[in-house]
Design a protein that fits this description.
single chain; 445 residues; 2% strand; globular; disordered C terminus
Amino acid sequence: MKRISLGAVYEAGLLAILLLVVLHAPISVWLGTIWPEQQTLIKAWKEILLAVLAIMAVVLITKAKLWQKVIHTPVILLAIAYIDLHLIMALVFGGEKVALVAGLMIDLRFIVIFILMYILVLLRPQSLRRIFMTTAVGAGIVIGFGLLQITVLPDDALKYIGYSKYETIAPYITIDANSDYVRINSTLRGPNPLGALLVVYITLALAYLLANYARASVGRKTVAIGGSVAAAAVLFATYSRSAYGALVASVAVLVASSVRVSKRIWIAAGIVAACMAGLLLVTAQTDWFSNVILHENPESTVTSKSNDEHVQSLRVGLQRIVAEPFGHGIGSTGSASLYDADSSNDIIIENYYFFVAHEAGWLGLLLFAGLFGYVMALLWHQRRDWRAIGLFASGVGLALIGLLLPLWTDDTVALIWWGLAGALVATPKLNANRRSKKALLQRGK
């Protein structure tokens, strides 16, 4: 019987996270209804697995003598500095233990998977293909269930596995309580995270088509085109304005930066852009535009509108970070703060950059901006690889969403995008190592 190596187990664990995280919401809700007393532990399965995999990573890079290559990499140093700042702040500020732990998990899980994926590709270069294949399978699950929701399933179908508006996750939501505009979740926690994840999927699929259309097989082109159309249909049904804008920005960046764009592609892009502009003009006076884009319904009796809540969140967030340049402490913002017994500490900040500054201060925001900017720069330098330019372009869109929503607090979106980024950022390092080994061999001859 063939012995399974620690490296294979390490890879399998990371691939399991990439695949299962798209099902995290329905699985955690369902299991939480069966074992309600273990609900918090069930939700933390991925963070627990990441901790175990981190221990494995230490063992593996020690055996492979890769410490110098990992630690001396600037992007990894930035990521470690961001983690260290959070740990120091947790010790200095303290706080309610459960809220503190929840805050650390939410703030750092995507940084950890970024580092672990980086190490995985250095150790097992062949894993890169499997990483993207696993992501594609996850995309099929998300898009497929989304299509079922907008075609044959009743709006409240998810209630049968424990979804609840007041106790767990709402099976669906509406725009300002208008039942004519039902927003779907698919397998995610809400329509906005779903929209953000679909931006990543669509952009990667289009990047593949732009780079490989001439030589790709009919089957692969059909899957990429069909998947993009299906994902766009599901994205439309989310009614997520931020995702709509992010997709436009991501596709624009993708087309403008692609190294293999022919004149026909530019003409097609121009026609699509003109059609979209015309469509906006035509729909500007319709109920759909008023409700979905403007979130304004003159017949609505709802007193608390989402537009007002966004503005109020931005105002509160700005006031807090100006008043507290060193931050208010880890776990003091968002869902983690709900674990704090002192309800006066509960605060929801929708702008992710204000979110970081409120928890980790201006230094935390500076480190996060530096890390994200550095990762994006590394992806840009690899833009001849369709995977890298696709992830870069989607990163531009997600960065814009972060201005309006606490984007990276969503486990599915954060773990997938940063996990893929970690894997891709490692490839130039891997190629450089191969070139140096080849040069040494040639000198030996």
